[in-house]
Specification:
Length: 442
């Protein structure tokens, strides 16, 4: 069992551990996001027109004159850490045509007639007519003609840079040495004005992974190391204390656990009969008192207590209509009721730590004169625990209401027990019970 101080320490340690994981996730393992035009302490990302005077014009049959604008996207690394595995996401806000893209591949997400269409990443450069025909996008493509990919508001482009550019956003070590990576693309529209005047890139962003160095996160790693060291010391101390507690109170601790488990189990059994209530628990208490009154040591008394708790466990297999029947039982029903001793033995025979429990479940209806069941044993051939439990069982049964009769007074029960001495019950244990009743302890 942990002390209150140890529980508090463990709770604090768990909180620190979760905080450490959170910091590691943020600063070491998580990918980050940077919106276009937003400059952070580590990275800058922007999209601009490469050359305002450089307006591409394309003449396509059956189409108006197409004005194309060349854009460049620049990523600048202000930090001391390498940036890798980055990609750009561009959401389309106005109808445009994509004609070219360099230094990487593009993945296109479109919605056509209510259906979503995704074109896996491909390169726009150096594609022949046959390859362009296979693209699963809304496009205009003719032999020896430029490619036009129709993009409508709500569509999305995801740009994946080539390896050279993906891994080239290396750290800059002073304000004049920012390292950056450039990509570019061309948008067209059928209008007389250049596209850059009204196209909005505000929704563009990049995701990237930043490789933090050991030196930059020295404090984080130091905290992690100290936390692990402290955790080891804490758990070691807790372990030492638990061992001490177990050595000092092992018997009492085990006793409580066993009694609680057995008590719960016997409550399931006793719940089958509303009259007997906590019969098994009372029999267990009486049995321990009889053993103590008879001069048995504490170990024997405790084992007898366990045997009393479990003596009727076989009744869990007997149907309720037999247990609760108010008329005399038939021969078959009586045979079924008697079978609870063997059923109890089968349930408890694997309880090797208390072998007396299964013997008592089997033999607590044996009689001292040998006329009992199921084995017809007599005298001291009947295990002592079974002889003790038999007396306690009889007393509690007569002292409790049942479906067929009312409870009997203690005086009448004593008379009955005296008459059954040496025939049904061991005289030693009958005398012990009578003494306890006379002393007012039962």
């Amino acid at each position: 069992m942990l002390t209150k101080k140890e529980k508090t320490g463990f709770s604090f340690m768990a909180a620190v551990f979760l905080l450490l994981l959170f910091l590691l996730k943020i600063f070491v393992f998580s990918d980050r996001t940077q919106k276009m035009g937003k400059e952070s302490a580590s990275l800058y990302f922007n999209i601009t027109q490469k050359d305002p005077d450089n307006i591409w014009q394309s003449v396509i049959p059956n189409h108006p004159l197409m004005h194309g604008t060349v854009y460049q996207s620049k990523i600048i690394n202000h930090s001391r850490h390498s940036v890798s595995n980055w990609k750009m996401v561009l959401k389309i806000t106005k109808p445009v045509y994509l004609t070219n893209c360099w230094n990487g591949s593009v993945e296109i997400h479109q919605t056509t007639k209510g259906k979503k269409l995704i074109q896996k990443a491909f390169k726009l450069q150096n594609k022949d007519y046959n390859e362009l025909k296979e693209l699963k996008v809304n496009k205009f493509c003719g032999k020896n003609k430029p490619l036009l990919i129709y993009l409508n508001p709500g569509d999305k482009i995801i740009y994946y840079p080539d390896t050279l550019y993906s891994e080239n956003v290396i750290p800059g070590y002073n304000t004049d040495d920012f390292h950056y990576s450039e990509i570019g693309f061309i948008f067209h529209k059928a209008d007389s004005e250049p596209l850059n005047l009204d196209f909005d890139f505000a929704n563009a962003y990049i995701t990237y992974h930043m490789e933090d160095s050991m030196g930059e996160n020295f404090m984080l790693y130091t905290i992690g190391f100290l936390f692990l060291l402290w955790s080891f010391i804490f758990f070691y101390q807790v372990r030492v204390n638990i061992i001490k507690i177990r050595k000092l109170k092992e018997r009492e601790h085990n006793k409580i656990i066993i009694e609680q488990v057995m008590s719960v189990f016997t409550k399931f059994i006793d719940a089958k009969d509303i009259f007997i209530g906590s019969h098994s628990e009372r029999v267990a208490i009486y049995s321990r008192m009889i053993a103590k009154e008879s001069g048995r040591n504490d170990d024997v008394c405790q084992k007898v207590f366990y045997c009393g708790l479990l003596h009727d466990c076989g009744k869990i297999s007997v149907k309720d209509d037999i247990l609760k029947k108010t008329e005399p039982l038939t021969e078959d029903e009586f045979k079924t009721l008697r079978s609870h001793t063997k059923k109890g033995y089968e349930l408890l025979k694997c309880l090797s730590s208390i072998p007396e429990a299964c013997q008592t479940a089997l033999l607590h209806h044996e009689r001292f004169d040998g006329t009992g069941f199921p084995e017809h044993l007599s005298g001291t051939l009947i295990p002592e625990a079974a002889r003790i439990v038999a007396v306690a069982d009889c007393y509690d049964t007569m002292h409790s209401d049942s479906y067929i009769r009312k409870s009997i007074s203690a005086e009448k029960i004593i008379e009955e027990l005296k008459e059954r001495k040496s025939t049904q019950f061991d005289p030693e244990f009958v005398d012990a019970l009578i003494n306890l009743v006379k002393k007012g302890r039962i």
